Amino acid sequence: MEAQQRFWNEWNAAARERQLESVCTDQADVITGWLRGSGRHDLDILDAGCGTGWLCERLSPFGAVTGTDLSHEVLDRARMRLPDVRFVAGDFMTLDFGGNAFDVVTTVEVLSHVADQPAFIAKLAYHLRPGGHLMLATQNRPVLERYNRIAPPKPGQLRRWVDKNELKRLLSKKFEIVEIFSITPKANKGLMRIINSRTFNRPVHALVGRRLDRLKEAAGLGWTLMALARKRP
After folding, report:
1. Which CATH number characterizes residue 110's domain?
2. Structural domain of residue 97, as residue ranges?
3. What digits encode the pLDDT tens for the residues 63-120?
4. Is the pTM of this model over 0.85?
5. Among 52, 55, 45, which Cα is nearest to 72's?
């Protein structure tokens, strides 16, 4: 656990605290869209694996936000930037925020970095009130494996990506799945690298907007799998 904590403190400081990629902003757009659809601004929201708190800032207009992450050094800085968010540092699997305590739980690109994925999903469900919603984003395994060159995991970095069917199986024990889809086509190798390149997409976008990207996402070619699920009564 110390190695994981060290890795994520360093990774967040070098990456998320400096710049948010389009993958992140696209994930946030989907989640805030779901929240706007609720019509509520009094929600109790937990962001599990919040990193720098970048998503917590976008969640705040919808209610009271608690963010938790292993990266204690990163959270110290997040508290300074976002005083209205409650940040709790520690291993999510050993922390207890109370059963049935939240209306919404969000978790972004965390599932692939936990040792016991079924236990992680069960704990997310434990913290949700019956009928509450899980809003989850995770890496889309086939896209990362087939169409992207990804550096091997570093010490302290756990990695187990899932595909759409694996995600459905993980969620179905505790949740009713409302929708699962992919977003953000992204590739850096093979034919998909060319199809997703700026050179190819700039004239296409000029002609048809983002319709081609929507078709890629519908075909499951997005970097991210987004899942909206309702906790079973």
Report:
1. 3.40.50.150
2. 2-140+153-185+222-231
3. 999 999 999 999 999 999 999 999 999 999 999 999 999 999 999 999 999 999 999 9
4. yes
5. 52
